[in-house]
Amino acid sequence: MRHHILLPTDFSDNSWSAISYALKLYADEACTFYFLHAWTFSNPSSRTYITSTFINIQQEETKEKLSALKDKAQGKSSNTEHEFETIFSTQPLIRSIEKALNDFPISLAIMGTKGATGAKEFIFGSNTVNVINKIRVCPVLVVPDAYTYAKPKQIAFPTDFNHFYGDELLPLMHLTKLHDAKIRVVHITEKDHLTEKQNYNLSMLKANLEDYPSSLEWRPNFGTKELIIKEFIQEFDINIVAMVNYKHSLIESILNEPVIQKIGYHPVIPFLVMPELNA
């Protein structure tokens, strides 16, 4: 089975961290990597008169950078089953990704937490937040800046059991099978007992994970959910946190959480965001 992985890039160091992670994650797999750059006009010299020639030169220079990035990644791979493609787009990032998903059989997008101009006070850059919020047909794996690759052997899956999980879990199952990982389901208890709906969803989740190594962990609701997850990551040496992006879910608070405001979920490990199906 050949995997098709989309790698949006702005040529930043954080972007390269994500690319490097992708190459190692699929090091032993047949895989096609698509390097996507959504070009936007920049005017570093504050020119008042912009010609089409000037714009064409900028675009050609960016295409060369994209080609060089592809060559760099190719040089890092020793797998003859790895293929590399470039996608240069003049459309906005979201539209560019949507077109790529339509044109190619992409199953996962991998990108950095923030780009070259990301504000330091926020955990996630605006581009990453937009991709997670607006790309609802493809899972997104977000890789922290300067992350040192660790084979994903432990994957945390926080859940409140308020949703029925079906095919939403396929990306999680895919990574689990790919690296013989263990899924650690973690539930933060807010009430003494689960509701009838929660119990049903729990039983169905257990059934869905029956063929995968997994465990169910319960955590008391002391402190913020973000902090509880952070401590869980440290306790079990978690390599990836996976969540389904439901509306009004924990993900929303994480994405917009200013680091300087309080101790929150700081992405020290990759973060797999799986889309809600039929949203």
TrEMBL record:
Where is coiled-coil annotated? Answer: none
Q: Where are the transmembrane segments?
A: none
Per its UniProt record, what SUPFAM superfamilies does this chain match?
Adenine nucleotide alpha hydrolases-like
What Pfam families does the record tag this protein with?
A: Usp
Signal peptide coordinates: none
- Residue limits of the UspA domain? 1-144
InterPro entries listed in its UniProt record: UspA
Q: Which family does it belong to?
A: Belongs to the universal stress protein A family.
Per its record, how is this protein called by name?
A: Nucleotide-binding universal stress UspA family protein
Give the source species: Winogradskyella arenosi
Q: What is the lineage of its organism?
A: Bacteria, Pseudomonadati, Bacteroidota, Flavobacteriia, Flavobacteriales
